[in-house]
Prior knowledge:
By secondary structure, the protein is α/β, with parallel strands linked by helices.
Amino acid sequence: MKISASFLSIKEDLKNNIEKLDNSNIDYLHLDIMDNVFVPNKTWKFNDITDLLENTTSKKDVHLMVKDVKKYIDDYSKLNPEFITFHLEATDSVLGTINYIKSKNIKVGISIKPNTKVEELLKYLPLIDLVLVMSVEPGFGGQKFIENSINKVNELYEIREKNNYNYFIEIDGGINDTNIKYLDKCDIVVVGSFITSIGNYNEAIGKLKGE
């Protein structure tokens, strides 16, 4: 299981703390990008992000919680991330968006909100590289984990095994050292405030990994 660390909950000395996170035992830096349209919150402008990340070397995992998906893909593809993930609920052109991200030689993820069923993803699963299950309502960090998200993860795992698909299973929202034990079918867990609220990031990461 890999850790993708979100810096959404860091409120002070952001650039230095992102660099500290980058130098910890994480596998990805997770970028929560919001537009105040698709979700009721707005994060950084692209130029701010490039400044914040200029000294980082971790692989980037971009999560677009936005309505104008294509515009944000154009911007964030410049960071050469490993993944760009968009929301199934954000666009009427899901196939077009998948192909557009692929055209930039970036791995494609689709995310679903807590009230969206896995069944709505079925026809896209052979085409994508990652499914991101939201275990909180997207928009804000520090929320409580929605327990039925575990069922979605297990369902996605069974579908992948049965059909020999190749997508990663990722989950995001309210993950801590207690509920992570129920997420053994996940390949990547996105963790924010559990790590960043502790001064020693590696200590928190060690707890997540059961070390």
